[in-house]
Amino acid sequence: AWLDEFTMPLLTAITSPITATGTYNAPFSYQIAADNSPQTYVSTALPAGLSLNAATGLISGTPTVPGVYPVTITVANPGGVAPTATDSKTLTITIDKAVQTINFLPINNRLNSAPAFDVSATGGPSGQPVTFTTSGVCTSSGTNGQTITTGLTLGVCTVTANQAGDANYLAATASQSFNVVGSAFENFPPA
Predict the structure, then answer these.
(1) Which residues of 10-30 are buried (b: 16+ CB within 10 A; e: fewer)?
(2) What is the pLDDT of residue 38?
(3) Distance between alpha carbon 159 and the CA centroid of its chain, in Å?
(4) Which residues of the chain carry a pLDDT beneath 50?
(5) What is the DSSP pairing of strand 67-77 with strand 19-23?
(6) Nearest-CA neighbor of 33 among 95, 89, 78, 84?
(7) Dihedrals phi, psi of 136, to nearest 5 degrees
(8) What DSSP string runs through 92-158?
(9) pLDDT (0 to 100) of residue 35
């Protein structure tokens, strides 16, 4: 009997990597690749925000929940009278938490006789409060540690701003250092 690709499907095997990584709220793209140009693509349990183009094998979208997702992907060359030629593998998709940044402007040098002062910083999209800690020749107090006090000791003060992460964003930190000087040498950064 005469057989062709319509009655005897071409064997197909997935050749694309079986791991993929994306980031929360950022565009994601993964192309399922396989031998002999499969005609159909199927996937199960995709991360929220992603979808599969069943004709091209492209998984794409914007993931909305970080985590690790085992996804079964299947490619197929349907046959006519013969069984369909298929291949299935588990694709592990890891969706990482997004990075958030703290906008923390430089702090001017201070005289050791200067009064306490407040610092401020703008946090990232997690919405968690920004808190402040110090090291060196100064201390922090007040709401979230935002009030900085220098003593009589000369040296360097480092103020660190911290913002906790949440289910979608990583924790963030930023630091600024300034000199505590003992005479009228208060320096200002360039405008």
Answers:
(1) eebebebeeebebbbbeebeb
(2) 87
(3) 25
(4) 1-6, 80-81, 186, 191
(5) unpaired
(6) 89
(7) 95, -140
(8) EEEEEPBP---B------EETTPPPEE---B--TT-PPEEEEEEESEEEESGGG-EEEE-S--EEEE
(9) 87
The tokens for 64 are 């909305």
What size, in residues, is the chain? 191
- Identify the bridge partners of residue 92 per DSSP, sorted by sequence position: 19, 70
Which residues face 19 on adjacent strands?
92
Residue that is written with structure tokens 């979208």 in the block: 61
Which residues have a Cβ under 8 Å from the Cβ of 11 and sit 6 or more positions away? 35, 36, 77, 85
Between CA 162 and CA 134 the distance in angstroms is 11
Residue type, 92: T
What separation in angstroms does the CA of 14 have from each of 50, 86, 92, 121? 20, 9, 14, 49
Q: Is the dihedral of CA 51, 52, 53, 58 positive or negative?
A: positive
Shortest CA distance to 165 belongs to which of 137, 128, 135, 191?
Answer: 128
What is the per-residue pLDDT for 150? 94
* pTM exceeding the 0.85 threshold for the entire prediction: no
The CA distance from 115 to 119, in Å, is: 13
CB 135 within 8 A of CB 161: no
102 vs 107: CA distance, rounded Å: 15
